[in-house]
Amino acid sequence: MLNFSNYMKYDKENGGISKCGNLCVESFSFSKLATEWEEKSTLDKRETTKTNGRYHSCSLVSISLPKFIEHPEKLPEVCYYATLMLDKSIDIGEMPVLEAKLSSQEIRNIGIGKVGMADYMAYNKVMFDSEDGLHLAESITELISYHCYKASISLAKEFGPYPAFKRENYQKILGRDPEELNKLSPNGLDWVGLHSDIMRYGIRNMLINADAPNTTTGIMMGASPSILPIHNKDMSQTLSDMVVTILPMFIKERYWYYKTRFQYNPVDIIRFVRRLQRWVDTGISMEIDIDPDIANIGDISKEIIDAFRAKELNAVYYSLTIGKKSLNHSTAGSGGHAAISPSLVIYHTSLNHSTAGSGGHGWYGREDVPEKISL
User: Fold this and answer.
1) Single pTM value for the model
2) What is the mean pLDDT of residues 161-170?
3) Rounded Cα gap, residues 252 and 178, in angstroms
4) Domain membership flag for residue 360
5) 3-state secondary structure the chain
6) Do residues 89 and 60 make contact, with C-beta atoms less than 8 angstroms apart?
7) 118 inside domain
8) Taking a C-beta distance cutoff of 8 angstroms, is the pair 282, 313 a contact?
9) Domain with 227 in it: what CATH number?
10) Which of 89, 132, 139, 329 could form a disulfide with 260 if both were Cys (CB 3.0 to 4.6 A apart)?
């Protein structure tokens, strides 16, 4: 996991590098091992009452893109309330450890993502590997980021910026000069003006946007998971003791615009995520789905390394390879054979924590990071 955003300057003693995050690697910030702490013990529990340690915590929500097909004018309002809701959850929610609570109070990081991208793309008759598809997905991603940033600035006016806020850390936004963002903007948005507002009023949250996998969330919302293509056109998934049938939202009207993840070349999906990452300040949980008949591991590896070097990718979640004997392009419950590799997490410097989660394996770098990164 790499994060090149200037926001990480807050963690100056460790080089400003993200090194602690959640299982799906879309939400991350810094951590600090506690060297001093005080505890209070009772017969029932032992709790930390004071510590100099800091742990990452994530507060996430996702916006359903198909909802804005008929009502695009509602997007700024939804972004405002999503930002407000997550910001308030920091104050009223319970953290499992004091280190996480203190970190969330100091930087107030949140993560607003998306579900239903495949539905949104299919409705608009575009593919993930087409230039029209890239433009459409990048446009909606920028709009959400922009309006969430505007909402966070508005909350800073009312409640104050996050306690660790420093104006000198905001010479850039999303790792770029505001003028460059204006040139890149597919919507013609005024990032220079937004930057001026941050300089004047501050901003309520240090990290704002993150795209989680959202498989179960997408099912409950009736939308395709996250920002990736669908797993299958006619699949089912087991949730607890229920078997849920999953049909894409516009499958009847747009059947041929729903390509599954295994029908795309993984290199094209990586390029898709690279375009979206421009407008996402934290991470995008990217799953790489591999059909050996159409994918080349060397090309996939090269694209990932190029993306990290170009500072256009922050994390890779895991890869899933479908077996030759699979009856269809499914990842669960359909007779197919798939192998899941551990989470792929590339670090930029010497770290203390892996973000790969239970059973995952991270790639640990050294303080003397070589120019050439190899797989």
Assistant:
1) 0.83
2) 92
3) 42
4) no
5) CCCCCHHHHHHHHHCCCCCEECCCCCCEECCECCCCEEEEECCCCEEEEEECCECCCCCEEEEEHHHHCCCHHHHHHHHHHHHHHHHHHHHHCCCCCHHHHHHHHHHCCCEEEEECHHHHHHHCCCCCCCHHHHHHHHHHHHHHHHHHHHHHHHHHHHHCCCCCCCHHHHCCECCECHHHHHHHCCCCCCHHHHHHHHHHHCCCCCCCECECCCHHHHHHHCCCCCCCCECCCCEEEEECCEEEEECCCCCCCCHHHCCEHHHCCHHHHHHHHHHHHCCCCCCECCEEEECCCCCCHHHHHHHHHHHHHCCCCCCCCEEEEECCCCCCCCCCCCCCCEEECCCCCECCCCCCCCCCCCCCCCECCCCCCCCCCCC
6) no
7) yes
8) no
9) 3.20.70.20
10) 329
The two tokens of residue 69 are 């097909």
pLDDT band, very low/low/confident/very high, at 306 (cuts 50, 70, 90): very high
Q: For residue 58, what pLDDT band results from cuts at 50, 70 and 90?
A: confident
Question: Which candidate, 312, 311, 290, places its Cα nearest to that of 299?
Answer: 290
